[in-house]
Amino acid sequence: MNAYPPADDRLKHLIAQEINLSVDTWKLAFWIADGIVKDPAIRAELERIATVHGEGQPCGDRHCERCFAAAHAEAER
Fold first, then answer.
1. What is the mean pLDDT of the chain?
2. 19-58 burial by CB neighbour count: b if 16+ within 10 A, else e?
C-alpha cells in the first residue's frame, strides 16, 4: 500500500501541523518536528506506549484518550 507521506514521516507531519499553529513558517514547524521525531527518548516512549497498548494495559499517559476512558469506566462501576 503506497501512502503519502511514508509511514516513517506521518508522525513528523502530524507534529509539524500542530507546531505550525504557533510558528511563522511551515519550514520551521517541519524542522522542529523532525528533531522531536528523531529524539531517542521520545522514540523509546512511543515504543513503550505501543507495547503496553498491544498487551491491553494502560500506558500511564494522562493524555491518552483510550486509557483515560478505560480508567473512568472502571471508576463508574
1. 85
2. bbeeeeeeeebbebbeeebeeeeeeeeeeeeeebeeeeee
- Which cell numbers hold the place of 19? 507546531
**What phi and psi values does residue 59 have, to the nearest 5 degrees?**
-85, -20
pTM: 0.66
Indicate the Cα dihedral angle 67, 69, 72, 76, nearest 10°: -140
Torsion, Cα 17 62 70 10, to 10 degrees, reads: 20
Q: Which three cell numbers stand for residue 32?
A: 522542529
Polymer length in residues for the chain: 77
- Do 32 and 16 touch, CB atoms closer than 8 A? yes
